[in-house]
Structures are given as C-alpha cells and as structure tokens.
Known about the structure:
Elements: H1 10-22, E1 27-28, H2 29-36, H3 40-52, E2 56-61, E3 64-72, H4 74-95, H5 100-119
Antiparallel strand pairs: 1-3, 2-3
Helix pairs in contact: 2-3
Amino acid sequence: MHFSRFGLSWVKFNALIHLYMTGDRGLIQSELGNKMLVSRANITGLIGRLEKEDLVVRKNDPSDKRVFRVCLTNKACALIQSFLPVHNSYMQKIMSTLDIHEKEVLISLVRKLNKGLNLI
C-alpha cells in the first residue's frame, strides 16, 4: 500500500533509488542487477517495463558501445523526489518502535549481512 499510492512496487522503487543515487551518470544494466541482487534476465525485463512507463532510458555507454547505461527520466526524478519525503517519514515511524539499543543491534546485524553479501 505504501508504494502503490505512487504507482510503485518495492522492486521498482529499489531500481529507481539506485539510479537516482547515481545522478545523471546512471548505471550499466549489470551494475544495477548486481546492486539489486537479481539475474541478468530479471534486470532486462524490469528495465523494459520501466522504459514502457517512461521512467528510464537506455543510453549507449560512451566508453563501451557494447553496453547500455540506464538513466532516470525527468518523470522518474520527479516521482522519486515526491515519494522520498513520504517514504522517509514512513520509515521513521517504523524505526521509532525500536529503542536505541535495538537500533544499534539492528545496524550491527545489517552491517554483518552486508559483509556476507560482499563475499558472494
């Protein structure tokens, strides 16, 4: 419900926020797939769907014509900019249920999991 009010899903948001954080540079399709932990086939399909919604464009990489960079459209940037304050407020409410010690433990565990992901 949280994402759907903005026409998003968790997967769409995850892709768009990774691209948003890169600015105009965008990401190579495989980089985006790696960040999202999805297969090459899944990322290709997702990018295709996002293109149909006019949220991303594929551009030739200037340094390697064999690969595409995925970049946000102006429509996607506006969507993310309107959604982020709502999302941040939502996350703040969720996190407010944890006391300071629980938050520290959560952060420690997430860091540990992140290290494990980097080993894969």
